[in-house]
């Protein structure tokens, strides 16, 4: 790769994302770049990986926008990336002001956020574009369900899957009755769940889609996973990501779906417009997200053959600790 200038990349809501930030730190260190981190909590493990860390206010706090823009200008941030979906819409309104101070915001355009951050909207969009999804019921349809088939109830919006749980009979819905608009019912698909870590360039072109099996999950986060390749689901995911790219998707997309055991049919369940928790496996398998983002900041063409990632590579996650002195 041709020599590139040292750049500064800043992450918001770094939390426990040590492996992801470590991958960026290693790539930035190769070119004299700088990795910054920020979080509402000052004691977060990923802070230890950053060259510099700062505690910031919540996205919905007064003065958040001005404070963030001032920080980016002061630190000469070239690329700003958030890992926390609830602040995405707020950040999208700050894009023009961030651009004025020389900071590129790695965030898909609002039409993409509207589709991806509402599971019901995503299901309807998939139906319009010809993608298969499990049947969904929103709050207005709950009364039609008679318990004939197993279902899952899950948040209509939000991150992670730890709040999703099975529904075996109508009485199981009673705890959710006070906030029905916040939840959806999803048809149960008997099969294996897969995640696709996709990466799109600044023009919405699909650079890579890494397919991995979610072998073991704890509290909604994958802790054991392996890269796989099944042509039909992989190609459908490439097509889905390409369509989102035309709508303004950029950078990472985390796509999830199931392959039904009985007939091999594939169903999309959701797309998150951010780095997923298991993306370090995709990076290790050859989807060089940190390098590609540096190239994007430099307006360089990314040369990569989609589907060329390493197959049957396992990721086995474990608990670790960092130690800090205050």
Automatic annotation (TrEMBL):
<dbReference type="GO" id="GO:0046872">
    <property type="term" value="F:metal ion binding"/>
</dbReference>
<keyword id="KW-0547">Nucleotide-binding</keyword>
<keyword id="KW-0067">ATP-binding</keyword>
<dbReference type="InterPro" id="IPR003806">
    <property type="entry name" value="ATP-grasp_PylC-type"/>
</dbReference>
<dbReference type="GO" id="GO:0005524">
    <property type="term" value="F:ATP binding"/>
</dbReference>
<feature type="domain" description="ATP-grasp">
    <location>
        <begin position="123"/>
        <end position="298"/>
    </location>
</feature>
<dbReference type="Pfam" id="PF21360">
    <property type="entry name" value="PylC-like_N"/>
</dbReference>
<dbReference type="InterPro" id="IPR048764">
    <property type="entry name" value="PylC_N"/>
</dbReference>
<dbReference type="InterPro" id="IPR011761">
    <property type="entry name" value="ATP-grasp"/>
</dbReference>
<dbReference type="InterPro" id="IPR013815">
    <property type="entry name" value="ATP_grasp_subdomain_1"/>
</dbReference>
<protein>
    <submittedName>
        <fullName>ATP-grasp domain-containing protein</fullName>
    </submittedName>
</protein>
<dbReference type="Pfam" id="PF02655">
    <property type="entry name" value="ATP-grasp_3"/>
</dbReference>
């Amino acid at each position: 790769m041709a020599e590139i200038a040292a750049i500064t990349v800043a992450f918001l809501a770094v939390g426990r994302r040590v492996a992801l930030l470590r991958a960026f730190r290693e790539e930035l260190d190769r070119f004299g770049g700088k990795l910054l981190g920020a979080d509402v909590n000052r004691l977060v493990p990923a802070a230890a990986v950053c060259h510099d860390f700062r505690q910031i206010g919540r996205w919905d706090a007064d003065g958040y926008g001005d404070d963030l823009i001032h920080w980016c200008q002061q630190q000469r941030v070239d690329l700003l990336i958030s890992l926390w979906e609830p602040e995405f819409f707020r950040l999208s309104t700050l894009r023009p002001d961030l651009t004025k101070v020389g900071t590129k915001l790695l965030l898909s355009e609002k039409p993409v956020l509207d589709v991806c951050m509402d599971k019901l909207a995503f299901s309807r969009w998939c139906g319009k574009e010809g993608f298969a999804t499990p049947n969904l019921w929103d709050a207005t349809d709950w009364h039609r369900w008679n318990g004939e088939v197993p279902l899952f109830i899950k948040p209509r919006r939000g991150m992670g899957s730890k709040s999703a749980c099975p529904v075996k009979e109508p009485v199981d819905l009673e705890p959710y009755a006070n906030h029905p608009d916040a939840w959806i019912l999803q048809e149960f698909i008997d099969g294996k769940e897969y995640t696709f870590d996709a990466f799109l360039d600044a023009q919405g072109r699909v650079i890579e889609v890494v397919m991995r099996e979610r072998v073991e999950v704890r509290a909604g986060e994958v802790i054991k996973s392996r890269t796989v390749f099944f042509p039909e689901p992989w190609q459908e995911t490439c097509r889905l990501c390409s369509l989102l790219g035309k709508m303004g998707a950029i950078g990472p997309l985390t796509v999830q779906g199931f392959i039904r055991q009985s007939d091999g049919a594939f169903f999309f369940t959701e797309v998150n417009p951010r780095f997923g928790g298991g993306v370090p496996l995709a990076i290790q398998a050859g989807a060089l997200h940190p390098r590609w983002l540096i190239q994007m900041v430099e307006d360089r063409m990314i040369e990569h053959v989609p589907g060329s990632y390493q197959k049957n590579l396992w990721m086995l996650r474990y608990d670790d600790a960092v130690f800090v002195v205050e």
